[in-house]
Amino acid sequence: MQPPAKNVCRRKLPACGSTSRQLVVTDNPKRRRYVSKHHAFWGVVVAFFFALPALADKTHVDVFVSGTEGYHTFRIPAIETSPDGTLLAFAEARKHNAQDPGYGKQDIDLVLRQSSDGGVSWSNMRIIEDPGEGWSAANPATVVDQDTGRVWVLYLRSKPGRSEFTSRPGTDDMQTFARYSDDNGSSWSDPIDLTDVARDMNDPGWRCSVTGPGGMVQTRDGRLVAPAWKSPYAVFAIFSDDHGRTWQRSQSMPGGQLANENQIVELADGRLLMDCRQSEGTHRWITTSENGGATWSVPVPGETVSPVACAIQRLTLAEGSRGRNRIIWTGPKGPERNHLVARVSYDEGKTFVGERTVSEEPAAYSDMTITKDGHVGVLWERGGYKFLTFTRFSLGWLEADN
């Protein structure tokens, strides 16, 4: 029997910011395109800049610091912009050591900090789930349902001593859960068990299913799509067409290539692109879906990088002959897990160019969001897992050398 989750914070926080949709920047600096994934309208941005302090083109703020607040290490970032513009920074709070779920004497809580000023300052840390001594709540992936304003976080829960390699097929050793917030992250629902959807419980080899980390999307027609991977390694998606009431599992990526940690972005033509960590070799894998994530193509090689979780995010979407399509990718240039860079694609993920250095320090996992004023926000592992740092930069900074 699993213990009930404890210490779920439901404390109400002061309201912050003015109500807004998720923003995607256009080439006109006086206008911003509000995108609800499947509804769009134009508006002139006035109040957003008035409410924010003047910021440099690129700024860094440490959000989580390892060795503080009773935790050995903070890892596995996920970041989301809520409907009112509040930034939600999720992380694994690893209590006893830096290892993954199920290794040694490990205990991992799912935690959150919020920012109402574009990432300049952050709230006190709150525990979203503490599943019990020796248990782990890990690998968050987030999305905002723009129809309902509901923020979703999907994650895994694992029993003591059960990892992706020791979880037993057909059991609840490692489970897939979801929670949601209807108040911009101030309080969260009870956990919803998605294990039977995310995994084939009758498959004698399927040990567990894991989301993301990061990289969920809502498509133009309203479908919520979460990137997922399993052990033994393969990638797929789970999705909902009814705002999270029911969920389905896609087919796995074909081709025999082994891949795991993954993120998804919607392309201008409505297809989905999944960017996947390779299990071996020097480059990532890219697969696409023409049916909203139900099936996936044979993959093609992606960015050259050491095996690590990277981030991919839509920045701008052209409107007819206006504007330009832009997708951003972040990951460590190397060697190994060092030197975080941002690259831009102008051809819908076929190539990434215009590399900019985010930091030359040791860097590992990252996740991205677009802030309410159209800046890029990256939450990433810095300094050999000493910090989870929020870096904010502008389109001007990103394209300064282009």
Explain this structure to me?
The protein is mainly β. The protein has one domain: Neuraminidase (6 Propeller), CATH 2.120.10.10. 3% of the residues lie in helices and 45% in strands. The chain is built from three helices and 27 strands. The strands form six sheets. It has a seven-stranded antiparallel sheet. Strands 13, 14, 15, 16 and 17 form a five-stranded antiparallel sheet that branches. It has a four-stranded antiparallel sheet with strand order 5-6-7-8, with no helix packed on it. Mean pLDDT is 88; it is low at 1-55.
List the keywords.
Neuraminidase, disordered N terminus, 27 strands, mainly beta, seven-stranded antiparallel sheet, 402 residues, globular, single chain, five-stranded antiparallel sheet, 3% helix
Give the total of beta strands.
Answer: 27
- Tally of contiguous helical segments: 3
Task: Quote the average pLDDT.
Answer: 88
**Kindly, what is the distance between the CA atoms of the first and last residues, rounded to a whole number of angstroms?**
57 Å
Named CATH architecture: 6 Propeller
CATH topology: Neuraminidase
Strand order, sheet with most strands: 4-27-26-25-24-23-22
Uncertain stretches: 1-55
Which overall shape is indicated by the principal axes computed on the Cα atoms?
globular
> Beta fraction of the residues?
over 45%
> How can the largest sheet be summarized?
7 strands, antiparallel
Query: What is the string of SSEs from the N terminus onward?
Result: EEEHEEEEEEEEEHEEEEEEEEEEEEEEEH
Q: Helix/strand-derived class?
A: mainly beta
Count of the domains = 1
Q: Helix amount, in percent?
A: under 10%
Rg calculated over all Cα atoms:
19 Å
> What's the CATH class label?
Mainly Beta
